[in-house]
Amino acid sequence: QLHLVESGGGMVQFGGSLRLSCAASGHTFEDYAIGWFRQAPGEEREGLATISSSGTKAEYVRSVKGRFTISRDNAKNTVYLQLNSLKPEDTAVYYCAARTAHYPDYVPAFVVTYDFWGQGTQVTVSP
């Protein structure tokens, strides 16, 4: 069992920034690729970014490319999502999720089944 805990959410004004953290415990963190997702009220869950277990490869959904940056520190068992130039439409609960990595540069698609999920952290962007 890999336990994931998100933190770093909060309320920020339009154009502001936040850094979300996803701290892992339990299994060997380096065995997992990590994805960040979000879900706004009444909306489908949306994949935002994924990063390989090695941290060398990442993919982003087009809507956040250039504004959000995913990174990981395997020594700290933590993945980060830097959110810049935030807009009110970025308001959502943000989740991290882990998928078993088949190889170090494996970057899972957003639509595959992830093995473990965190409880989420709320991000609210005011106009």
Largest sheet: 7 strands, mixed
Overall body shape: globular
- SSE class: mainly beta
Kindly report how far apart the N and C termini lie: 40 Å
* Extended strand count: 11
Number of helices: 0
Query: Can you tell me the residue ranges where pLDDT is under 50 for at least 5 consecutive residues?
Result: none
Q: Please trace the helix and strand order, writing H or E for each element.
A: EEEEEEEEEEE
Mean pLDDT level = 96
Helix content: under 10%
Radius of gyration: 14 Å
Strand content: over 45%
Description:
It contains no helices and eleven strands. With 127 residues, it is mainly beta.
Give a brief description.
The protein has 127 residues and is mainly beta. It has strands at residues 2-7, 10-13, 18-26, 32-39, 46-51, 58-60, 68-73, 78-83, 92-100, 116-117, 121-126. Strand 7 and strand 8 form a beta hairpin.
